[in-house]
Amino acid sequence: MVSREVLAACRRGDPAAFEEVVRATHRQVYTQALRLVRDRQDAEDVTQETFLRVFRGLSGFRGDAQFETWLYRITANAAMSHLRRRGRFGDLLPDDDDERLEVSSASQLPADSPVDRQALTEALASLPDPMRVAVVLKDVYGLSCLEIAEIEGSTEGAIKVRLHRARKRLKDALFEQDEAREM
User: DSSP letter string over the chain?
Assistant: First the structure.
């Protein structure tokens, strides 16, 4: 966690303070970037872009939210921009049942079912970028559907639909693997 004193020193232009911010947060920024873009080199680029944006925008950080929350949003925005530039981020093809769905508890994995970490990683990797990004931002980083929509330039309803479909695919993929192992 970055202290208020270090952030205040950054706003005053202290380069050592900014280096401290980078040292303290680099691992979490890189990890989030890697989860979103799924490529180490791309994650390094996103991490660098994130810290450039932080450096430029730190004077405007008012402290209404925690610094780490603000940093997560900047990282997510940098990752989305990177994916768009690379041409790997597009809207999902509409399904026949493209009505706005609320995320139901039935679409989530049962709380008592153990999930193999490797299987979950593989299932996440198999999702299309928009679905994977929505799940990671919501379930790993705790952003709201509205925040994800703002980051992705979408609507809250579209994000809820995307999450519902992604979780259904994850559930199907994970339980399909379990059934195959049992046979």
Answer: ---HHHHHHHHTT-HHHHHHHHHHHHHHHHHHHHHHH--HHHHHHHHHHHHHHHHHHGGG--SSS-HHHHHHHHHHHHHHHHHHHTT---PPPPPTT-S--PPPGGGSPPTT----HHHHHHHHHHS-HHHHHHHIIIIIT---HHHHHHHHT--HHHHHHHHHHHHHHHHHHHHHHHHHHH-
Judgement on whether residues 46 and 118 belong to the same structural domain of the protein: no
What does pTM read for this prediction?
A: 0.66
77 and 19 share a domain?
Answer: yes
What are the pLDDT digits (tens) for 12-53?
889 999 999 999 999 999 999 999 998 999 999 999 999 999
Residues 30, 81, single domain; the answer is yes
Give me the domain span that covers residue 56.
4-85
